[in-house]
Amino acid sequence: MPVQQRQLSNGLQVRIITDPQARCASALVQVGVGSLHEPDAWPGLAHLLEHVLFAGSAGFQDDERLMMWAQAQGGRLNATTLGNGTAFFFECSPALLADGLARLTDMLVAPLLAESAISQETAAIDAEYRLLCGHQDTLADAALSAAFAAHPWQRFQVGDGAHFGTDTAALRRALMRFHQQAYYAANTTLWLQGPQSAEELWQLAERAGLRFADQTQPSTVLIPPLVLSAQRDYLLQRPDGDRLRLSFLLNGHFREELTLLRQLLRDEAEGSLMAALRAEGLCDELRVLRPYVSARQQVLSIELTLVAPQHAAVAEGLLHHWLRRLTGLSDEQLQHYAALAVREFNRLPVMDRLRERAFGFALPEAWPLRWQPLLAQLVAENLTRLRSGRQETGQTPLSREGAIEQPRPAGGLQTEPRGTGDKWIAGYRLVQGFSLALAARRLDKAVLPAAIPTLDFFPRPQPLFAAESVSAALPLPHHHPDGGQAVLLLSPAAVMPLPWGQIMQAALRALAGSCIHGGGELRLECYQGLWLIQLSGPPELMMATLSSLTARLAALPAVAIEQGEREYQRQQRAQQAEIAVRALINGLPLLWQNASPSPSVSPLPAMHWQASLYGGSRELHQQIARQLSHFPGRMNSPVEASRPLPVPQREYSVVTDSNDAAVVLFCPLNGSTPQAVAAWRCLALIFQPAFFQQLRVEQNIGYVVSCRWWQVVGRAGILFCLQSPTLTHDDLWQAIDAFLQRMAMSLASLTADRLAEYRRVLLDSLNPHHDDPLTASREGWLQQQDPAPALTTEAAEHLSLADLQYHHQQLLQQPQRCWRVSNRKNAIV
Fold it and tell me: Quick one: 769 exposed, middle or buried, by C-beta within 10 A (0-12, 13-18, 19+)?
């Protein structure tokens, strides 16, 4: 879909994308000011302003402001503060785009910036800063910035209570000045995407965009260019596993080219760089990042998750060898990978597509790309290397003897001169406000392996399927026969033993990568605690892939078992270091299933599997049914009746590294009728904004305050999440219980108009339209896992206040059905 570009009379840039098939609409406002533009006296000011803008504006306050309104409508919203800009975005039904845009515009041009809101958000950012002090990606980005000469990138950017101080009036004046100087029309871009016509979107954009101030003189700080320092190699001591981050300083405006490079780097097919790194036992994962972006420069990072630290030099050598091979790619090959990137992009939700277009990896649509100029900069002269991992024997961080940390004064006082964040504290280096065990150390030079593995690129011939001579067809449910693109679904009928999901992923990665190049898709992923294989594509490709899949699972190679076990352990460590509430949510399915590790020796444990086919021809259905007779494990045997919900214990514990108190309460749906489903889903809609308003805004309980409709191992219900750096676990449990009690009074005062709005949101959810067949079939499969009946039009239309009150009382009266999980170390388990 082409992007139409226009400029309003006040200088504001507009980008419009009309998509007649879209079921959602989205808006994004991008302001050209970020953390790099902050005044020296107020580090973190851009981040704080982003938070406070959501707290209310002249035209929309309390429940009518964008954050509360969007949640009540079942929409999504968020914002992000980057070094060179700040973006605000939301997604909603197309009919509500004008209402949402009016709220977004008002909060950006007429914010209240109330002192009470500033105090609340200062506390929230202070808690966020403490969380980030243990966040691996944040610390790696900070460590990377140390490889450059003194630059604003190295300054403290997140913000915290010590820097903001206690003089809220002074902080408010600073926020007002910063907002006035930066949030003006010529410094702003508005993006709109939806099914509306271009003219309708243009009218919406004009009405909203003309509200921004017409300021002609730019007032933002000019960012100096990045310059690599003489010291390019660093060692960051972290307990999170061994990683090698190779970062290139790029001069020039490369975006579409980087998207194409990322697509090539992330390819996992046989013959790809990633397949070679895994086959050689060097690396398990690869990520492509852009930790720094300015108008004239950017830093591209390629991060390798190493199998062992001694493999860093060989893994880097193989990467450089592969990069040199890219110079010889034909135009046909480049366009093939660009088409894959476009295909991947088009599967994203509308809001995420806007985010990528605005400040992410841009769609490679223009042709020809500046491919060779990009490759010419991926050389050693532009490279810095950061290896992170556990401390090696005999190594100590580089230090300055006798250095003592100076206390950070309150807000309004400069703690670091512009262009430097370089302090030393008892062997730790302070960069971007984070204390890093960072050593300047010459790393081993890149070398090639003794035998260079074969590296190849697509397009190339696909394998052909050879039909089995004798095969008995298995029973195979066929949904929507002759109804479009075929998707085969395979899922274990019971709990997948740990860590076999990760082992199967490792065994199928290269096959899945090759399938993508043939126009198909093979996925094995875990959704809400349930594992699912999906296979789609042209019939011949599906059959060839299914045949290979069956053979690989029947005889798992040792290398796949080793990779899967490492990935499982890595995920366990990452979960423990994750934001505490996320760790509790991720741990809930395992507690529910009472999952336990199984010996990881080939072959795959004997399991019962369920298979079904969505779409596709009847002939393909018969071919797949015959091929499945060779699948390892029992296929589509009679399913046992749905087991009753296990009775939860009083409280479960999940270990986290965080010192914050965190709790998660999951209340499974109590009822077996469509009317009960309608009432519970409506209660979740009502609770979601009220929970945030009462506990986050009014009571300022903690950094993480969330309530939503959720599904765990096929069971739907309402999920409550709290995390606080100051309160105890018991305080948090009491806060949730008190909220649920208070909601009885709120429900009693619910107006007929507001109930009608909730009914409309429920009705809108009844007809989800997914252009991607894999997404549509997965959502259908997830619905089938839930023993509760589906929501119906009749139940939504006839939902009454009495229904809501009755089911709310059911929730209150049966607390023993709810699952309580915390990171309390002595919880009953």
Answer: exposed
Q: Which of 38, 50, 521, 578 is catalytic?
A: 50
Task: Kindly report the length of the chain.
Answer: 829
Q: Which two tokens stand for residue 279?
A: 């086959």
DSSP 673: S
Q: Among 552, 550, 543, 551, which residue's Cα sits nearest to residue 613? A: 543
Sheet containing 423-425: give its strands across.
423-425, 428-431, 434-436
Cα separation, 560 vs 506, in Å, equals 5
Distance CA 431, CA 687 (A): 41
Longest dimension (CA), the chain: 82
Using H for helix, E for strand and C for coil, what is the string for 549-614? HHHHHHCCCHHHHHHHHHHHHHHHHHHHHCCHHHHHHHHHHHHHHCCCECCCCCCCCCCEEEEEEE
* Long-range residue pairs from 164-169, CB within 8 A, at least 24 positions apart, any chain: 164/42, 164/44, 164/48, 164/122, 164/125, 164/126, 164/410, 164/411, 165/409, 165/410, 165/411, 165/412, 166/410, 166/411, 167/410, 167/411, 167/412, 168/115, 168/118, 168/119, 168/122, 169/115
SS3 368: coil
- Distance of alpha carbon 748 from alpha carbon 746, whole angstroms: 5
- Report residue 334 as tokens: 């480049």
**pLDDT (tens digit per residue) in 209-226:** 999 998 766 656 789 999
C-alpha 123: how far from its chain's center? 24
Burial class of residue 613 (count of CB atoms within 10 Å of its CB; 0-12, 13-18, 19+): buried
Chain centroid, CA 766 distance in Å: 26
* CA-based torsion, 181, 185, 186, 191: positive or negative: positive
Using DSSP's 3-state secondary structure scheme, residue 742 falls into helix
Contacts of 734 (CB under 8 A, 6+ apart): none
* Residue 50 is among the residues annotated as catalytic for this protein: yes
Closest CA to 534 of 356, 775, 363, 325: 775
Q: What is the pLDDT of residue 465?
A: 64
428: phi then psi, degrees, rounded to nearest 5: -110, 145
DSSP, res 446: P
**How far does CA 746 lie from the centroid of its chain?**
33
Which of 306, 320, 293 has its CA nearest to residue 238? 306
Inter-residue contact 188 to 358 (CB < 8 Å): no
Reference 67, options 59, 189, 76, 58; nearest CA is 76
Report pLDDT digits (tens) over 568-581. 999 998 888 888 99
The whole model's pTM is what?
Answer: 0.91
Alpha-carbon distance of 513 to 498, in angstroms, equals: 24
At 681, list the tokens.
Answer: 């889903």
Residues of the chain under the 70 pLDDT cut: 216-220, 391-427, 463, 465-471, 595-596, 598-602, 639-645, 769-771, 826-829
CA atoms within 13 A on the CB side of 257: 18
Token pair recorded at residue 333: 């090959």
CB-based contact 313:446 (threshold 8 Å): yes
Please give the DSSP secondary-structure letter assigned to residue 498. B
Return the bridge partners of 92, or none: 25
Cα–Cα dist 823/735, whole Å: 17
What tokens does 380 get?
Answer: 């050693």
Tokens standing for residue 297: 């420069």
* Closest CA relative to residue 546, chosen from 456, 502, 634, 611: 611
Q: Specify the DSSP element, H or E, that contains 67.
A: helix 66-72
Residue labelled with tokens 């042709």: 367
User: Which 8-state DSSP code applies to residue 385?
Assistant: E
Cα–Cα distance between 287 and 302 in angstroms, integer?
6
Look-up: residue for tokens 């930066």? 182
